[in-house]
């Protein structure tokens, strides 16, 4: 008996990957999670079987794809800390680039037909103009961004040779949590602004460090395009549907199309939680552009991408709810699975 066609989500035990699994399952798509659990959370694998495989295990990966009749791959698995990529670039080339080559080889051997790559605005480096369009020069300024750009180039070169239709989705800053509160963001170590600000406000962590207050931005802090994780996932599902309809190749930005500064986020956390966010200034981090904002015209035109929850209040409120940091939820004893 042939297994039903599965959509494989690499990194499906992680923050974005688990939200993607949830959204796919809600619309009835059979899901297969591939994750080595080096950074993922086993408790987040609830919407499909788990194959605990490192992406560099090509033969095991291909056998798993065949067994589960995988037609489509959503590739989220990667090392993704900019600072760590500067201090340990070899790890990033081994995991991100080596893993990508192995994954594409497994796709060829198993006859996978569609591939959606999680790429990054880090491939643009410091953009010359804002908002950033997909045709902007890609000049990454850190090893993480360079590995993502190499993965894009690998896909463009290899996919036509193996009959693979693909989409490259360049994320901006992903934030928030599923509105149900059943999933939230948790990394180890945690480096993302919103959870760190929430932890600082709740007294669960140290004062928030603001890395650089002398950027050429309105308030001197970094300006970023924050997109709600649920909106981002809907963009992936739309890309899968377009590829299934014969479209492709596709390359586009996924963002909200507007920027918020670090201080904007801190103020919103204070508004939502009713708590002060303790913070202290810190030196700039290597590899931090002053501002990154997406032009999303292409995603709107080709995918019908219209973020529904990517206003700052909504993203902070959803994240606070998932962490149990709103007054109502604290009274109800709300909790979340940490992803």
Can you describe this structure?
With 339 residues, the protein is α/β, with parallel strands linked by helices. It folds into two domains: 6-175 and 226-254, NAD(P)-binding Rossmann-like Domain (Rossmann fold), CATH 3.40.50; 183-225 and 256-338, Alpha-Beta Complex (UDP-galactose 4-epimerase, domain 1), CATH 3.90.25. The protein is 38% helix and 18% strand. The chain contains eleven helices and 16 strands. The strands form five sheets. It has a seven-stranded parallel β-sheet with strand order 3-2-1-4-5-6-12, sandwiched between helices. A three-stranded mixed β-sheet has the order 13-10-15. Helix 4 (89-110) runs parallel beside helix 5, helix 6 crosses helix 8 (262-273) and helix 8 crosses helix 10 (312-322). The chain is globular. The two termini are 35 Å apart. The relative contact order is 0.15. Residues 328-339 have low confidence and may be disordered.
Find the CATH topology of the largest domain.
Rossmann fold
The pLDDT mean sits at: 92
Number of strands: 16
Give me the number of helical elements.
Answer: 11
Widest β-sheet, arrangement of strands: 3-2-1-4-5-6-12
Q: Major sheet, described briefly? A: 7 strands, parallel
Identify low-pLDDT runs: 328-339
Q: What is the CATH homologous superfamily assignment of the largest domain? A: NAD(P)-binding Rossmann-like Domain
In CATH, the architecture of the largest domain is: 3-Layer(aba) Sandwich
Classify the helix fraction into a percent range: 25-40%
Question: What is the element string, with H for helices and E for strands?
Answer: EHEEHEHHEHEEEHEEEHEEHEEHHHE
What is the CATH domain class of the largest domain? Alpha Beta
**Broad structural category:** alpha/beta
Give the overall shape: globular
Radius of gyration: 19 Å
DSSP strand (E) fraction? 15-25%
Total discrete domains: 2
């Amino acid at each position: 008996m042939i297994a039903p066609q599965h959509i494989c989500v690499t990194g499906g035990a992680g923050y974005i990957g688990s939200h993607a699994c949830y959204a796919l399952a809600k619309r009835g798509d059979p899901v297969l999670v591939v994750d080595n659990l080096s950074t993922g959370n086993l408790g987040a694998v609830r919407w499909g079987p788990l194959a605990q495989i490192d992406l560099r295990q090509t033969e095991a990966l291909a056998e798993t794809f065949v067994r589960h009749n995988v037609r489509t791959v959503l590739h989220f698995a990667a090392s993704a800390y900019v600072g760590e990529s500067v201090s340990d670039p070899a790890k990033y080339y081994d995991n991100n680039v080596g893993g990508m080559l192995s994954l594409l080889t497994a796709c060829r051997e198993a006859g996978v037909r569609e591939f959606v790559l999680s790429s990054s605005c880090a491939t643009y480096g410091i953009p010359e103009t804002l908002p950033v369009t997909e045709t902007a020069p890609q000049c990454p300024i850190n090893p993480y961004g360079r590995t993502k750009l190499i993965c894009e180039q690998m896909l463009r070169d290899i996919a036509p040779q193996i009959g693979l239709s693909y989409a490259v989705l360049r994320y901006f800053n992903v934030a928030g949590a599923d509105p149900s509160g059943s999933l939230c963001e948790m990394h180890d170590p945690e480096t993302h602004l919103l959870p760190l600000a929430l932890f600082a406000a709740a007294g669960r962590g140290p004062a928030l460090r603001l890395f650089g207050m002398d950027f050429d931005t309105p308030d001197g802090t970094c300006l970023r395009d924050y997109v709600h994780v649920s909106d981002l996932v809907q963009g992936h599902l739309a890309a899968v549907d377009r590829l299934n309809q014969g479209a492709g190749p596709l390359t586009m930005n996924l963002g909200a199309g507007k920027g918020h500064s670090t201080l904007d986020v801190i103020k919103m956390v204070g508004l939502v939680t009713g708590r002060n966010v303790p913070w202290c200034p810190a030196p700039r981090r290597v590899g931090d552009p002053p501002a990154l904002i997406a032009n999303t015209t292409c995603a709107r035109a080709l995918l019908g991408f219209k973020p529904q929850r990517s206003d700052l209040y909504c993203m902070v409120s959803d994240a606070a709810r998932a962490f149990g940091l709103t007054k109502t939820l604290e009274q109800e004893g709300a909790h979340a699975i940490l992803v």
